[in-house]
Amino acid sequence: MIKNMQNYKYKFSVAPMLDWTDRHCRYFYRLMSPNVMLYTEMVTLGAIIYGKFDYLKFNLKEKPLSLQLGGSDPKQFKLAGEYIKDRGFTEINLNIGCPSARVQKGSFGACLMTEPDLVAECVNVIHRETNLPITVKTRIGIDNEDNYEFLYNFIDTIDKKSICDTFVIHARKAILSGLSPKENREIPPLKYDRVYKIKEDFHDKNIIINGGIKNINDSIDHLKKLDGVMIGREVYQNPYILTEIEREFYKSNNSPTRKEVVVSMMNYIEDELSNGAKLNHITRHMLGLFHGVPGGKKWRRFLSENSYKKDADLKVLENALTLTEVNV
């Protein structure tokens, strides 16, 4: 398979999180970091093709943005590509890592690790339809297939049979029955060395690590051996860490204060409310903005208790700001 391999420039990314990293969340994150790669929530091919809503809607200010897809039928990938190709996404990511029973029922997610030939075919189909870079997000193994050879063969097959040259690897195996998705993020042990070994054996591929990474120092250590780092829950709980990431990895000296982030969000929220959005659907992503600073708990409590109320508007945010040290 002929490829035009280039170094992956998005050294830092925020993980796709179902029911969390929606378009409001991503707009909020982008105010603090112009450079990290953001991901959509996983969107199934069926939702794109047959859904009543526009599941591909996003604000162009969210870019760079990766559309994460869930599916396993090459014919559906071809059909979905018609809807995706002109929407403006930066890249497409295939979800080969989710262990949930609902995803398994649809024959995609982590269970597809046993079908690398099919994954390679899907990669090529969606690439032909959209002409976008395609990446694959996966685990280090599933159930009893928990050895390096299994992961190596999976990566090797996709590498040889598709145009994919970028792999995001969650450094835990997935247990497909008996554990919830939350438990699958916590119970299987992290095996970072296995991801490092993949980079050694596929040195000309972009290998991005995910799983259990909580701070900048850990990220710096991983980047000594790998091409990128992906963080999920830690960013959601403490989103202002994105400004630290900008300074450390992108040498930015123009980080907004938390107050400036809120003020910028007000303009966005005003537009969204006028179009029928509910305030709490947006502010739920902002609860951790003042994490670890004076007034942070009061901010969180006030938004939680008032954003959901009927006719809640920007005054809720204005009042919440008065409870914080707003110059941080």
From TrEMBL:
Needed co-factor(s): FMN
Keyword RNA-binding on entry: yes
EC numbers: 1.3.1.91
Domain DUS-like FMN-binding: 14-319
Alphabetical list of CDD domains matching this protein: DUS_like_FMN
Record keyword Oxidoreductase present: yes
Amino acids binding FMN: P16, M17, L18, Q68, K137, H170, N210, G211, G212, G232, R233
Molecular function (Gene Ontology), one example: FMN binding
EC top class named in words: oxidoreductase
SUPFAM superfamilies per the UniProt record, alphabetical: FMN-linked oxidoreductases
Catalytically driven reaction(s): 5,6-dihydrouridine(20a) in tRNA + NADP(+) = uridine(20a) in tRNA + NADPH + H(+); 5,6-dihydrouridine(20a) in tRNA + NAD(+) = uridine(20a) in tRNA + NADH + H(+); 5,6-dihydrouridine(20) in tRNA + NADP(+) = uridine(20) in tRNA + NADPH + H(+); 5,6-dihydrouridine(20) in tRNA + NAD(+) = uridine(20) in tRNA + NADH + H(+)
PROSITE patterns from the UniProt entry: UPF0034
Chain segments annotated as transmembrane: 36-53
Residues flagged as site, Interacts with tRNA: N95, K182, R185, R300
NCBIfam families, sorted: PRK11815.1, yjbN
Family: Belongs to the dus family. Belongs to the Dus family. DusA subfamily.
PANTHER family: FMN-LINKED OXIDOREDUCTASES SUPERFAMILY PROTEIN (PTHR42907)
Function summary: Catalyzes the synthesis of 5,6-dihydrouridine (D), a modified base found in the D-loop of most tRNAs, via the reduction of the C5-C6 double bond in target uridines. Specifically modifies U20 and U20a in tRNAs.
Record's protein name: tRNA-dihydrouridine(20/20a) synthase
